[in-house]
Every structure is written in C-alpha cells, then in structure tokens.
Amino acid sequence: MRTISLSQLFVVVTFALLIDRVTKYVALEYSYDNKLYSLFVNTYGVFSVPVSNGWMIIISGIIILSLIVASAIFFIRNKQMSIAMAVLIIGALSNFYDRVAYGGVIDFLRIGHSSVINLSDVYIIVALIVMVFGVDRYYVLR
Predict the structure, then answer these.
(1) Which residues pair with 42 in a beta bridge?
(2) Is the pLDDT of residue 58 over 70?
C-alpha cells in the first residue's frame, strides 16, 4: 500500500484550491449568462435545500472539522483515500469561504436548464465517489 507525502498532498490540494478560487473570481468579475455559464449565489443548502445561510455555516463548519479528524484517523495511510479526502475538504472549505465572504456559494457552471454548480461541487462529488469505491477495496485488502 503506497502512502503519499505531505508535500505531494500539499501540491494537489493547493492546485485544486487555486483553480477553484480563480474560476469563482472570474465568474464574479465577468458574469454573463449563456448555455455554459450562469452566475448564481446559492444562499441555501446543498441542492438548494431551503436552509438559512447561518445554519449552513454552522453545519458546514462541523462537517469540515469532522472530515479533517476522520482523514487524520482513517485515511492517512492510503494514497488514494488521502487525496480524495484532501480534495473533499478543499471543496468544502472553498464553499464554506463563499458562504462567509459572500453570503452564499458562488455557482457558475450551468448543468442542463436549471442546475448551476461550481468546481468545489465537482471536487466533492468526485472525491465521494472515489472514497465510496475505495473504502471497500481498502478495507477488504487489509
């Protein structure tokens, strides 16, 4: 089982965070609507569930702290799980920052006619998929 060094993990996390923040900055500065882009500040919860931004800040903070503790305890020995958990935390932290700084999550990538997401959402979804399929393999092989 291969582990990942902290410097490798730092590079992956920094790169992912940088791309996410730059795309959100560009979306805010040069907002326009078309078939691919549509600026939307989501003041509700995940999938626009009607939860106030104040509650989402509290809930998000608790979840992020739990993820950091879980990654330190369970996934630090497995490279795939370490990267997935780090990318998940970066996505959550970036959306958390948006909630605090802008009063809601900055979404700009249009999916279909009604959904708008951002790169942090993509990071979170991909990381969860990797973790779901990787946890089974990780614990079966131990």
Answers:
(1) 105
(2) yes
